């Protein structure tokens, strides 16, 4: 009887995997035209949305170019996010050796697939602080980007499925958007204890996407019915506008094409590589560069827009001398592992076995289907403005099987780290990662050569 049950489960799993992969693969067009109204470079967290919105006008023809491939069942499973960092879904960028970290390089994960980094990230839904957006306006003149102005678009895109969150702050959440948001209904007990301790230390329970960010909460997540909710599957699967939106995967953009029109340098097309060939496609109205924090400046510099001295050194003709690639910032972080003496404080660990895959893919439940994280924002003693947290920390209930992934993420000396973690390989852990929100240091992004590959 057990063998029959397992056989039926395997058949059900196979059917779901086949159906889901068919939907994922359906976004990729095999043919394209020579000219479009708009060309969007990068089908990531922003590019997917931009292409969708433009194509809502059926009179507009849009081409969306993505260097990576479609999503897969592998990217669907929420607890798979860490293993995706060591896969082809990640560009696997690294810094150069750092002054105080020589000779090691720091990994900089970025998604390479439909959905971009929303396909490989930790799925925590956090909009950011009101003051950050308002600063863009007051300090940099980015009018139209104040928090009150963009809140409308956050609400428009959101489909929050948690009644308690929406009813508590209805002016901050949407229920009709394309991106589905949920809350783990059964968080690991250690996370509830962790949050209660933070309450005792003066950090209140809060909705970090509501009116007040300072505080702690079980993380809202980009997950719905056990499936990661990326911008890719939210906006592009299946292609909602197949007649006027063409989507090319494995289309690696090498540069933007420019012409001088009415004495003004104008982007008129794109050069990209696909299947071993190089193609040109032209835009009647606009080329939209939305390739992410690293690939966007890379493409600009390869196209001749960037620091003159740097481009000249690489033999790239300079079209516009601009400080492209400067002012690079990222959030420094570290990890703190705490062993749990009572493993009942951790939720059941995710395993890629038949039973849990059946629960995840067919029943849309089980350990593989949820995010076991909490997140809290706080200010350090040196910060006077307590409404603008300068630090955030997320905590994850770790499982026995996750330490191998932890070691794999180490930039160097993985054999040493394996020895360090060996005593904890059969233990449940609480992983806590503090992040600095407002960093003071700046770096740069530069081309290694003029070869885009």
TrEMBL record:
Keywords: FAD, Flavoprotein. Signal peptide: none annotated. Gene3D superfamilies: FAD/NAD(P)-binding domain (3.50.50.60), Glucose Oxidase, domain 3 (3.30.560.10). Its cofactor is FAD. One of its GO terms (molecular function) is flavin adenine dinucleotide binding. Coiled coil: none annotated. The keyword Flavoprotein applies. Residues 111-134, 292-306 form the Glucose-methanol-choline oxidoreductase N-terminal domain. Pfam families: GMC_oxred_N. It comes from the Eukaryota. FAD binds at residue 253. Belongs to the GMC oxidoreductase family. This is Glucose-methanol-choline oxidoreductase N-terminal domain-containing protein. It comes from Oppiella nova.
């Amino acid at each position: 009887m057990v063998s029959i049950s397992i056989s039926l489960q395997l058949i059900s799993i196979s059917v779901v995997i086949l159906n889901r992969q068919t939907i994922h693969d359906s976004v990729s067009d095999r043919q394209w035209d020579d000219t479009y109204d708009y060309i969007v470079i990068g089908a990531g967290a922003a590019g997917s949305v931009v292409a969708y919105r433009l194509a809502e006008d059926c009179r507009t023809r849009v081409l969306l170019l993505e260097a990576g491939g479609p999503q897969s069942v592998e990217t669907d499973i929420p607890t798979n996010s860490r293993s995706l960092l060591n896969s082809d879904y990640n560009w696997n960028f690294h810094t150069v050796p750092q002054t105080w970290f020589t000779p090691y390089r720091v990994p900089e994960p970025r998604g390479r697939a439909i959905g971009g980094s929303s396909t490989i990230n930790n799925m925590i839904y956090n909009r950011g602080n009101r003051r950050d957006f308002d600063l863009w306006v007051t300090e940099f003149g980015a009018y139209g980007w104040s928090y009150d102005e963009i809140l409308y678009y956050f609400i428009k895109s959101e489909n929050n499925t948690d009644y308690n969150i929406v009813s508590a702050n209805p002016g901050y959440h949407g229920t009709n958007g394309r991106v589905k948001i949920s809350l783990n209904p059964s968080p690991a007990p250690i996370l509830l204890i962790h949050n209660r301790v933070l309450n005792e230390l003066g950090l209140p329970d809060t909705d970090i996407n509501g009116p007040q960010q300072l505080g702690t909460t079980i993380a809202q997540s980009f997950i719905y019915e056990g499936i990661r909710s990326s911008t890719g599957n939210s906006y592009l699967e299946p292609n909602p506008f197949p007649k006027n939106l063409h989507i090319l995967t494995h289309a690696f953009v090498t540069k933007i094409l420019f012409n001088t029109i009415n004495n003004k340098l104008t982007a008129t097309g794109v050069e990209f590589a696909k299947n071993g060939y190089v193609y040109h496609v032209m835009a009647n109205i606009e080329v939209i560069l939305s390739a992410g924090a690293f690939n966007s400046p890379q493409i600009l510099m390869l196209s001749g827009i960037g620091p003159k001295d740097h481009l000249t050194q690489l033999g790239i003709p300079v079209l516009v001398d601009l400080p492209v690639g400067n002012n690079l910032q990222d959030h420094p972080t570290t990890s703190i592992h705490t062993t749990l003496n009572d493993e009942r404080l951790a939720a059941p660990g995710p395993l890629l076995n038949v039973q849990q895959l059946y629960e995840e893919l067919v029943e849309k439940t089980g350990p593989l289907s949820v995010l076991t994280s909490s997140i809290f924002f706080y200010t350090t003693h040196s910060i006077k403005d307590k409404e603008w947290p300068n630090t955030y920390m997320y905590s994850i209930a770790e499982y026995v099987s996750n330490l191998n992934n932890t070691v794999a993420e180490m930039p160097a000396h993985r054999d040493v780290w394996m020895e360090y973690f060996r005593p904890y390989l059969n233990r449940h852990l609480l992983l806590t990662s503090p992040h600095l929100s407002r960093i003071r240091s700046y770096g740069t992004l530069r081309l290694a050569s003029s070869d885009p590959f």
